[in-house]
């Protein structure tokens, strides 16, 4: 017998946006390092149009630009 169940998954893009917001709210640089790690591992599979649009809508576009530069350096 199998049971049906629902599962919710968070996309890497939404994790990045949440970490950008947490950093803005005083969460420290750990969030930026986490994002840089996600970018290094999944860069070719991320939806950058989504990230660019939503970071701008959330007022996070300056931080988003900074973390992208950080990821390119390391």
The arrangement of helices and strands along the chain is HHHH
- How is the biggest beta sheet arranged? none
Give the total of beta strands.
0
| N-to-C span | 50 Å
Count of DSSP-assigned helices = 4
Share of residues in strands: under 5%
* Overall spatial form: globular
Give Rg in angstroms: 14 Å
The class by helix and strand makeup works out as mainly alpha
Low-confidence stretches: none
Mean pLDDT: 91
Please estimate the helix content: over 70%
Overview of the structural elements:
By secondary structure, the chain is mainly alpha-helical. The chain has a domain at 46-74. Helices cover 70% and strands 0% of the residues. It has four helices and no strands. Helix 1 (12-27) packs antiparallel against helix 2 (30-42), helix 1 runs parallel beside helix 3 and helix 2 crosses helix 4. The radius of gyration is 14 Å and the shape is globular. The mean pLDDT is 91.
Task: Record keyword descriptors for this entry.
74 residues, 70% helix, mainly alpha
Task: Kindly summarize this structure in a few lines.
The protein is built from four helices and no strands.
In terms of topology, how is this protein built?
Layout: H1 12-27, H2 30-42, H3 48-57, H4 61-73
């Amino acid at each position: 017998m199998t049971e049906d169940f629902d599962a919710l998954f968070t996309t890497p893009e939404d994790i990045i946006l949440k970490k950008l917001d947490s950093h803005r709210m005083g969460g420290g640089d750990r969030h930026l390092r986490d994002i840089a790690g996600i970018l290094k591992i999944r860069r070719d599979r991320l939806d950058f149009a989504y990230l660019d649009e939503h970071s701008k809508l959330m007022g996070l576009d300056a931080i988003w630009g900074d973390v992208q530069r950080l990821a390119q350096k390391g």
